[in-house]
Each structure stands twice: as structure tokens, then as C-alpha cells.
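QA checklist item 7 of 12: single-chain prediction sanity check.
[x] sequence parsed
[x] length recorded as 423
[x] structure emitted
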Amino acid sequence: MHSIRRSLLALATSAVTALVVTMAPLPVSATSLVPPLPQPGLPGLSLADSNFYVPPSPLPSGQPGDLVKTKPITSSLYPEARATRIMYLSRSARGQAVAVTGVLLTPLTQEPNGDHPLVVHTPGTRGLGDHCAPSRQTDLATLNVRSADYSTLDHHRFLLHGVSVVITDYLGQGTPGVPEYLVGSSEGRNALDALRAAQQVENAGLSRQSPVGISGYSQGGQAAAWAAELQPTYAPELDLRGVLAGGVPTDMWTEVNHLSGNPVGAGFAIATLVGLDTAYPELALASRLTEEGRAAVDRVKQSCYLEDAAAFGTMSISDVTQPDVLTDPAWQRAYDRSLLGTRKPGAAAYVYHGTSDTIVPFSQGQQLYASWCARGADVTFERIVGLEHVAGAALTSPAGIAWLIGRLRGRADDAGCRVTSTP
């Protein structure tokens, strides 16, 4: 079994790496302007589907999680499920009312009435462009190869066990505006409100009594962990049974310093500047951008994750901003607002992290585990020996998924804190 797992990890890593290489534009040094985006002529949304992503103006009055509209997807990636686009009310990092989109997947075998289990999937990085939105990748007619959903196997696993999956696009991903990328409070609210919205979809076999879980990796791991910490006060009515969070950037201040100049992570570091400035416009990013920085920011606002991984070379935050925003206490405090581990999660948690992760260091997972345990949470921490970040995105912990499905089915035999290792 171990050799099979190692083979799968190698295949997943090589496949994603090959995609990054083949999709990459011209090489970029830290001192050259970022080349323009290629125009690959990818599928676009029909007028009707494009209109779906435009929120009504003004927004309808209502509570966070209230449904705004729904639309079936007739050509989805999931033949075993009904796929429904959703738009729902949520809150930004500053607590402002916003519209967020996503997609609900319900097993075809599921009865249309009842209170069946539901998981919100909080996606990992997809990119800031609207065409990168996860809900658009669910539809075969609009799938974008530059933002292909690397979590489809996870979704299939849940669906085949009778668990519905709602996937949030996050604020500004799909809908007009710029995403609040890697801003934890915004992502956590968007996730919890997606659960509330899914429970209101007619004939989905869900209700407000449905047991719910949260699952995500990387950016999605951060969102999942934030949702877990917010749930007791933001959405206490949800019957939260468990939280699965992998590759979590627990401390964003540490993480952005690690990504800056990183040959694979530089684009993601630049995207965090955009996300933070969107959430907190008083940071005034535009006034700090260099010529190269303006080109980089324009590019990252339009690109999906493959370009972000390949197009920015070893560009650092000091190349993008002058004075360097990482030396600015206001920016440091803004990143610190996304620090995890400051509150006890609302349910038991399963945290997993690869020991060879070079994008989100293993120490970040250790930090979250220790912080939650210190606050009295029940936490399992799986060390996956030799796992790199990209492979982890493609192959979520099978033990973690089985654990979460068990929790949704009523199992609760995991009190306390424990560390496991997977070769």
C-alpha cells in the first residue's frame, strides 16, 4: 500500500508540475516586467450563465446565508450528482453585506427531503480572475484548463458516501470585484454562509438540521480553519461535526515572507497584497507600487493558479512595492488579522501537513495543532512524510476524509489530541 501511495503522489506531483511548465509564459526575472497574459481562446460563459454571476442591485435584504438565486448545471463533472449554481448573501472582512457564488453537488441517490449530511469545500488557490471561479470549473461547458479543479477526487469521495458538497467561490471570485485572497475572516464567513445557503436549496435533501462538516487544503485549509473558529459565534445554529484542514497557512505574516521571492510562490505572495488591499483599502497599495509592481498586480488580478505559479520567477515583495510593505507596521498588523489558533474551533478537527512542503512550511501545521490543543480542542494531526504541497492538493488525506465522513455519521471517539504519521 505504501508503494502505491508513493506512486500516486509522484504521479500527482509530476502531472501538476508538467501543467505549470507547459502553461508558463516567457521566463521572468526579478528585474524584468511581467509579460502580458496569453489569450488561449478558452470556453466562455453563455449570456444567461454570465448574468447569473451579476448580483442584483441593490442586494436583497436578508441574513448572511440567505439564498439570492439558483441555476441547475446540465453538463457537470459529476455524473453521480445534481449540480446547482447558487448565489447567497455573506459578509466581507469588514462585515459588509456581499453576494457570493458557489455550487451545490447532491448525490442522485439522495431523497429530495430530509436532513442528509453536507460538507462545505473551501477551495485552495484558484487565482483572482473571475474565470478561475471553482463553480465555473464544475460545468464542462465553461471549464478553464488554467484553473482546473484539483479537488474533484475529494468531491467524488464525499458524494459516493452520500454526503452533499457545497463549494464556495469566495467573495469576488466569479462575481464582480476583486477577491479578498487569503484574508481569513472573509473566507471563513463565506464558507459558513455557503452551508446555510445549501440547506435552503429546494429538493436537495438538506435542512437546517443537517449535520455539516468543513474541508479544505492550502488556501482552503486556512478558510476551513477560520470557519471552524468563527462558527461558535457567527453560525452557532449549524450542527458542525468536524473540520478537515490540510496544508494550512496558519500565520500569514510568516507565510508571505516565505513566499516572497519563492520560485513557485512569488505570484501567490503578490496575490496576497491584492487580497489584503481589497479587504483593507486604507493600506493604499497602488501608492506603493513600482513600475514592475503595477505590471505584476495587473497580471495577477487576471490570472489563474498555473500562471501564478509559473509567471513571476523569483520576484519579491520589495520588487513590487517601495517602500517594501513588509516593513510597514500597518501591513504587518493587517496580515496578523488572519492569524489562526487564537480561538477554539467549534468541532473536533483533523489537521494534516506534508513534512516536505516548500510552499506552506510544515511548521505552520504544527503551529495550528499546538494552538488548538492548548485551547482544549480535540485535534488529530497527521504528519505525511515526504509529501510536498502540490501533491497534497491533488491527494487529500484519505484518512482525513474517512474521519470526517465518520463524524458526519455520528462517530465521536476521538477526544483529546494525537499525532499520527503516514509514510
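[x] summary fact logged: Residues 1-32 have pLDDT under 50 and may be disordered.
[ ] second reviewer sign-off
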